[in-house]
Amino acid sequence: MINVYNRNFMQGMWQITKAYWFSEEKWKARALLAVIVALNLGHVYIFVLINEWNNTFYNTLQNHDKDGFVSAIGTFCILAASHIIVAVYVLYLQQFLEIKWRRWLTAEYLQTWLHKRAYYQMQLLDHHTDNPDQRISEDLKLFVNLTLGLSIGLLKAAVTLFSFMFILWNLSGSLTIPIGQTQVTIPGYMFWVAIFYSVAGNWLTVKIGKPLVDLNFSQQRYEADFRFSLIRLRENSESIALYGGEVQEQAKLTERFQMVFDNFKAVMLRQKKLTWFTSGYGQIAIIFPLVVAAPRYFSNQMQLGGLLQISGAFGKVQDSLSFLIESYSSLAQWQSVVKRLLGFNQAMNRVEHIADQKVIGVTYGADPSLHVHQLQIDLPNGEELLKDLQLTIHKGDSLLIMGPSGCGKSTLMRTLAGIWPFGQGSVRIPAEQKLLFLPQRSYLPLGTLRDSVLYPYKEDFAADEKIRSVMEHCKLEDLVDKLDQVEDWSHVLSFGEQQRIAFVRAILQQPDWLFLDEATSAIDEITEAHLYQLLHSQLNYTTIISVGHRNTLVNYHKRKLIIDDTGSWRLE
């Protein structure tokens, strides 16, 4: 059964929901919700009036009452117009509330995901939370849509049931059933028939549709995995083309899509069974109340209008009690969405807790030097990478970190940046000093070339003349006239050009401390020498710490830290 009444599920759903309804937007949101609820109640009242109108209208037909017929048509026009107006604004205002709620939730999730670099830490610490991008973009949308739709639908179903059950009770009269020598009278028998019909339908729907919960959850995950694989193919298209890896990539993509296909086929088969039942159930519901009420009509205990009014009231009661049947697929999807969001929340909380409790203490002090004390760096599996590092780097100094691949050079840079939590020891960084880290692969955001050059600052950070001048110094003169051109620059520019863009950033930003993690690995030695000379001439007071393999880099640094593959180190 869809376990929407499970305590843990309800608590989790409320945990996600309450944040918005008690936020800074709470009064506007609550007022808008109140208007939506009032309109839905008004909608139900219009249905009641239309149900009463059915009695009047069909009785005028049966009685050949021309004046009554014309009057009923006029009444219908008013009711129909009211129904249209309310229906339009119920949908419009509900969508308006939905997008406002989604906007707020998206902002909150993005802030949490980016806070304390959770987006990065989750890659290191949590391998069970797949596709966080989908959870923010798609699952939040579905959560808001389904929560509003199902909640308001349930309220409307309850009010409709309460309104029409009295009509059905009063109109259906009593049914006398002879049992042996006695007779049993059932008051409001049509109401009880509607209850029985709906409860039986709900029970059978649950039995048939139960597997849809897990199937929908799996479908979302398989779809996201397939989409992620396509994105990776696009992002690494050049490398794949150079390796000639199309056959292997197609095999992997086909394998992932096969999982989408197989699971969707299972959804189809289960949905087919459910649709067989719900469609039959709905079609029988059209004629069922007329058949049950026909004996009273043919015995002249009611007129045609009363018969059709009973049929309409029966339909409304049955629809209300069959809310679960009509919403079963949505309820299954809702539960899987809540489950995914709760898992995402828990993963972000775990990461934040680990980040707060990390053994490597990164602090900021008034001392202008950077101090590393008894630093041990570990891999996520606990394996020791670097042990007992003691290091002091004074302002204006320059240090080159060297060693074989995999010895922990880049991980040391991540530790100095405060984003690597595994290990022990302490790092004290000068307070109120501007630090800039240049990784081996420079990040280029979507947008203009100017956006890439100034990242992470906005376009007013530096004047165009200054940008062009620095780009020319960094041997990017061919790009100076393309600052306002929008491209996917990470694919347009070569790896070497991207690294030179990073040097432009460094010179424009004028950091107090500059960390370069193999930032010239794709640049020839002559250009590398030119760029380092440029750094020394343009950044006179900047402390430079570099990671690299080339011996040519020794010429541009005063000291050298050498790390071996056993975790030992020496300072020269």
From TrEMBL:
Taxonomically, the superkingdom here is Bacteria
The record lists the membrane-crossing segments as: 31-50, 70-93, 142-169, 189-206, 274-294
Which of the seven top EC classes does this enzyme belong to? hydrolase
Compartments it resides in? Cell membrane
Enumerate the Gene3D superfamilies for this protein: ABC transporter type 1, transmembrane domain, P-loop containing nucleotide triphosphate hydrolases
Residue stretches making up the ABC transporter domain: 370-571
A GO cellular component term found in this entry reads: plasma membrane
Q: Does the keyword Protein transport apply?
A: no
Q: What is its EC number?
A: 3.6.3.44
One GO MF term, please? ABC-type transporter activity
InterPro entries in alphabetical order: AAA+_ATPase, ABC1_TM_dom, ABC1_TM_sf, ABC_transporter-like_ATP-bd, ABC_transporter-like_CS, ABC_transporter_sub-D, P-loop_NTPase
Q: Outline the extent of the ABC transmembrane type-1 domain.
A: 34-333
Q: Name one Pfam family in it.
A: ABC_tran
Q: How does it sit in the membrane?
A: Multi-pass membrane protein
The entry's keywords: ATP-binding, Hydrolase, Membrane, Nucleotide-binding, Transmembrane, Transmembrane helix, Transport
What protein am I looking at? Answer: Xenobiotic-transporting ATPase
Q: Which organism is it from?
A: Pelosinus fermentans JBW45
